[in-house]
Amino acid sequence: MPPAVFLKDCKVSPTPPTRAEVLAAAGRTVPDVIAPRLRVLFCGINPGLYSGATGHHFARPGNRFWPVLHRAGFTDRILKPWEEEELLELRYGITNLVARATATAAELSKQEFLAGRQRLERKVKRYQPKWVAVVGIGAYRVAFGRPRALIGLQPERLGSAGLWLLPQPSGLNANHQLPALTAAFRQLRTAAVRRDNT
Fold first, then answer.
1. Which of 7, 70, 140, 187: CA 20 to 30 A from 155?
2. Structural domain boundaries of the chain?
3. CA–CA distances in Å: residue 12 to residues 54, 60, 63, 64
């Protein structure tokens, strides 16, 4: 089984990137937070420029991923993006469908999403998480060829992993407010705990 992969431990708040550093982050990648046999591997669409500049997932101020993880019961406190490796202790991880950072997901092509699905399938085969949770409805619909997919448990599996679809937690996503996001994430956590107990 491959070793865990995560960023160097950082317990203090890093200096926020400058506007120039954020703009220069286009095309950068953010390392996966991944280990064998995770309970849930969260799969974002791709890093935004702020995440590309900081090297941490869901790093832009206002992104609701970390508060929602806590509110849904995945973590006992709101983690900061630079504390992301602590997820591994709880057997959760993070990856992305597309590795390169962009200002918006609209900059990504259909071919990138399809290639991203293939990479995700290889990661699942290698690391064998129990669940894969794709965080982003539109990206999932394109990458998996399911234009009518809805939030929640998906009918297919990804290798040996159950497949779950979650809404994008970006602060720009006005379609899902914090209570609805929390409820969607909590349903996944309930399913993950249930599967742990079987």
1. 70
2. 34-196
3. 13, 17, 19, 20
Nearest partner of 84 among 105, 63, 108, judged by Cα: 63
Confidence of residue 195 (pLDDT cuts 50, 70, 90): confident
> pTM for the whole thing?
0.92
Q: How far apart are CA 167 and CA 165, in angstroms?
A: 7
Strand partners, 44: 96
β-pairing verdict for 40-44 and 131-135: parallel
Average pLDDT over residues 180-191: 96
| E-assigned strand segments in 10-127 | 40-44, 92-96
Question: What are the residues whose beta carbons fall under 8 Å from the beta carbon of 54, sequence distance 6 or more?
Answer: 14, 17, 81, 82
Residue 198 pLDDT level (bands cut at 50, 70, 90): low
Exposed, middle or buried by CB within 10 Å (0-12, 13-18, 19+), for 101? buried
Using DSSP's 3-state secondary structure scheme, residue 41 falls into: strand
* 84, 57 Cβ separation under 8 angstroms: yes
Q: CA angle, 87 as apex, 61 and 60 as ends, to 5°?
A: 10
Looking at every residue in the chain, the average pLDDT score rounds to 92
